[in-house]
């Protein structure tokens, strides 16, 4: 028997469930930590950056569809402006590609090293600033709270392919899973999901990926240059993957923040402990997108959703720092090379970190605080 009321109620529940997310344990922890930040700022004023003046980066589904479109329009605008890096990277076609070039060039320095968290903080801020100053975007960099979509990322507000999404999943195309080097079975392979082909829906359905690949997880035509910086135009591919997303639920992030008191362990657990079969939330988020270039360690910023993932990485570091600001705003660890290969000295707050031709080197010390870092240019929190 047809029951219109039950049908309407079910439909309404579906819509409501898709759009409202109760605070998770990590969000509650962030909320309850803000008083520590206020106290710290009262004792250590940061010039014009105050608790009241700091801007708030917001979660993707907390933006209205109009706000999300303003963001993706600004990204498309960056993709339409001429590149500044063509002399080093003949494949770079746009200002958006400039950021991919810098990541490719600095990948070994900025992962598994002292620079991982501070450098990516600088990198995201600079990109956000380009969207605002070069493309008229008036909002701030949104983040992707992994937990919200982990159960079914392909049908989430981030990847459902609607105009308010970051673009859809890739078309279904047979492909392999993602090998996780050094991990024991069954953690040595992230099983493939239902995409793998070109993204055909949402704001980025027509985008061209120009650079790379360098470490492809799909069969992609090789770049004409060994450094990946030559022209290799192709479609954006994704394999939105809930197998990877399973390690990004809030309990993993909460555990990461609360059970690792030293930066060395916080960063190590975040970046993954593959020999122990632990992928970590960092790889988990990257491989939730997968495909090309999102699954490529070097070229991943060429998928626009990278920036929302790394904003979440930055948010998690911010929440971790708030637990003990006196100490954690000054804590770095690891060495100057990826996984200390080749061996190098421990990095320090006086080491330099920069964005190649895009932005000057600054001391790591300048990148430690979202509230007053970079000579006061950093002045943000996460909602
Ligand atoms: C899609 O991309 C092609 C090639 O870059 C371009 O010629 C075309 O105008 C684009 N279409 C839309 C609707 O943006
Ligand atoms: C998080 O929860 C899942 C599902 O209940 C569980 O399998 C996993 O071990 C938990 N992870 C952590 C780090 O607690
Ligand atoms: C480098 O850091 C490690 C731990 O992070 C520490 O054990 C070691 O003593 C440091 N080395 C030097 C030369 O400071
Ligand atoms: C979502 O936005 C509302 C205001 O628009 C805010 O009160 C709430 O804290 C936000 N929640 C999260 C988790 O960002
Ligand atoms: Cu990176």
UniProtKB/TrEMBL annotation:
Residue ranges constituting the Tyrosinase copper-binding domain according to the UniProt record: 303-314
Q: Which Pfam families match?
A: Tyrosinase
The signal sequence is: 1-18
Q: Which residues form a coiled coil?
A: none
Origin superkingdom:
Eukaryota
Annotated GO molecular function terms are: metal ion binding; oxidoreductase activity
Q: What keywords sit in the KW lines? A: Metal-binding, Oxidoreductase, Signal
Keyword Protein biosynthesis found: no
Q: Does the keyword Metal-binding apply?
A: yes
Task: Show the Gene3D superfamilies listed in the entry.
Answer: Di-copper center containing domain from catechol oxidase
Instruction: Provide the protein name.
Output: Tyrosinase copper-binding domain-containing protein
């Amino acid at each position: 028997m047809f029951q219109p009321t039950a049908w309407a109620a079910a439909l309404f529940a579906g819509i409501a469930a898709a759009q409202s997310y109760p605070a998770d344990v990590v969000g509650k922890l962030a909320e309850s930590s803000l008083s520590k930040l206020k106290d710290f700022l009262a004792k250590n004023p940061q010039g014009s950056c105050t608790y009241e003046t700091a801007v708030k980066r917001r979660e993707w589904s907390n933006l209205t569809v109009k706000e999300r479109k303003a963001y993706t329009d600004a990204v498309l605008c960056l993709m339409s402006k001429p590149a500044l890096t063509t002399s080093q990277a003949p494949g770079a076609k746009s200002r958006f590609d400039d950021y991919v070039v810098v990541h490719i060039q600095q990948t070994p320095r900025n992962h598994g090293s002292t620079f991982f968290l501070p450098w990516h903080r600088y990198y995201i801020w600079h990109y956000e600033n380009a969207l605002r100053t070069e493309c008229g975007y008036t909002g701030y960099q949104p983040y992707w709270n992994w937990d919200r979509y982990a159960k079914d990322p392909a049908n989430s507000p981030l990847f459902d392919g609607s105009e308010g999404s970051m673009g859809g999943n890739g078309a279904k195309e047979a492909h392999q899973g993602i090998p996780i080097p050094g991990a024991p079975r069954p953690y040595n392979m992230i099983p493939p999901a239902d995409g793998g082909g070109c993204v055909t829906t949402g704001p980025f359905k027509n985008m061209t990926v120009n650079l790379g690949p360098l470490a492809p997880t799909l069969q992609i035509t090789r770049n004409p240059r060994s450094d990946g910086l030559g022209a290799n135009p192709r479609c954006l591919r994704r394999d939105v993957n809930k197998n990877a997303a399973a390690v990004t639920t809030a309990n993993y992030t909460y555990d990461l923040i609360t059970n690792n008191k030293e930066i060395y362990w916080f960063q190590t657990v975040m970046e993954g402990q593959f020999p122990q079969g632990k992928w970590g939330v960092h790889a988990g988020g990257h491989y939730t997108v997968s495909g090309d270039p999102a699954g490529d360690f070097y070229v991943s910023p060429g998928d626009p959703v990278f920036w929302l993932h790394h904003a979440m990485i930055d948010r998690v570091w911010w929440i971790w720092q708030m637990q003990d600001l006196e100490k954690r705003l000054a804590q770095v660890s690891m060495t100057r090379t990826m996984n200390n290969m080749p061996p190098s000295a421990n990095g320090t707050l006086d080491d330099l970190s920069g964005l190649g031709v895009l932005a000057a080197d600054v001391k790591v010390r300048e990148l430690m605080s979202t509230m007053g870092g970079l000579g006061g240019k950093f002045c943000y929190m996460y909602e």
